[in-house]
Amino acid sequence: MTLEDIRKEIESSLDFSLSEVNRQRKYVYARCVYFKLSRELCPLESLESIGSSVNKDHASVLHGINNVFPSLEAYEESFYDIYTQAKSNLLDKYGACDNYASQVNPIAFLGVHKQYSNELSKYRDSLEELQGLYDELLISSDFGDAIEMIKRVPVDKYETLLVRLDAITKIMAL
Length: 174
Hints:
- By secondary structure, the chain is mainly alpha-helical.
- It has 2 domains: 3-102, DnaA protein, C-terminal DNA-binding domain (Chromosomal Replication Initiator Protein Dnaa, Chain: A, Orthogonal Bundle); 106-173, no CATH class.
- It is built from 8 helices and no strands.
- Helix 2 runs parallel beside helix 5 and helix 6 packs across helix 7.
């Protein structure tokens, strides 16, 4: 499925072009339906590419999805019906938009996976080293009592505790 497929589906339902420069309500709502479907069915498409396909910019796409579509959903039943019908037709015809998944080179993916696995093992080693230092600090000093007191602070009071500890350390540094 491509953006063009989504556009054709909506235009066939409405009998006018989505790229026509017009600010009438029916055009705004139609483009909003297109933006919403494009974002849902082809999530790897950029906002810029979705907008440019109907001579709009990425801000228009965001505005349509975030501000216009919720009101359309609540108050404009006819356009919401077009949205649901077009979505159903497109999913029946094409399935989810997976044309990018078929373009991924599996060998390249394995190389990236190996690289991140190596990075992850480094972080795991660092975490184990820090855990050992933490345990050693608890056993060998008076910090253990302070840490035990901090553990008893309710979760909703952590922010207040951190602010107060920060103030105390700044005062002590003077």
